[in-house]
């Protein structure tokens, strides 16, 4: 599109079984709707008819930049996890359209990776296992978190 981002887009991923795109830009992430036009027309093949529109912007509280973002795309999940340069983790519920929890000082340094339990097509898990996620920061190891208790 013709829209410009005010900072570099650091992270992008498909979301909600490929119905949306999530983009991180500065201290906010953008939820974009997606429509890919797959019609074949040799006369108009160079005309772009696929559309990507902004649905909503979500800002992380009191941080300069989002350092990591995680959202499950394999099944319907409304939860998006973000980590900021201020060492905080923030949980967003996109069904409600707001932030639901903030974990201050999750690590001693900025989190650079968040990994949610997405399950496996080769084995079954208890439903409670999908509430678990891991974070890691340079020099601080790996931490396992539970969304229900935020500990």
Automatic annotation (TrEMBL):
Keywords: Membrane, Transmembrane, Transmembrane helix. The keyword Membrane applies. It comes from the Eukaryota. The chain crosses the membrane at residues 12-36. SUPFAM superfamilies: WD40 repeat-like. PANTHER family: WD REPEAT-CONTAINING PROTEIN 27. This is WD repeat-containing protein 27. The lineage of its organism: Eukaryota, Metazoa, Chordata, Craniata, Vertebrata.
């Amino acid at each position: 599109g013709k829209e410009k981002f005010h900072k570099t887009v650091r992270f992008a991923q498909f979301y909600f079984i490929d119905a949306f795109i999530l983009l991180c830009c500065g201290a906010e992430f953008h939820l974009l709707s997606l429509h890919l036009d797959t019609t074949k027309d040799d006369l108009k093949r160079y005309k772009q008819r696929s559309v990507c529109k902004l649905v909503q912007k979500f800002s992380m509280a009191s941080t300069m930049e989002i350092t990591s973002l995680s959202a499950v795309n394999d099944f319907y999940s409304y939860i998006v996890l973000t980590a900021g340069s201020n060492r905080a983790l923030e949980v967003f519920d996109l069904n409600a359209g707001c932030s639901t929890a903030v974990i201050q000082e999750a690590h001693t340094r900025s989190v650079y990776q968040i990994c949610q339990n997405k399950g496996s097509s080769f084995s079954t898990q208890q439903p409670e296992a999908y509430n678990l996620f891991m974070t890691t920061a340079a020099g601080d190891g790996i931490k396992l978190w539970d969304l229900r208790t935020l500990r």
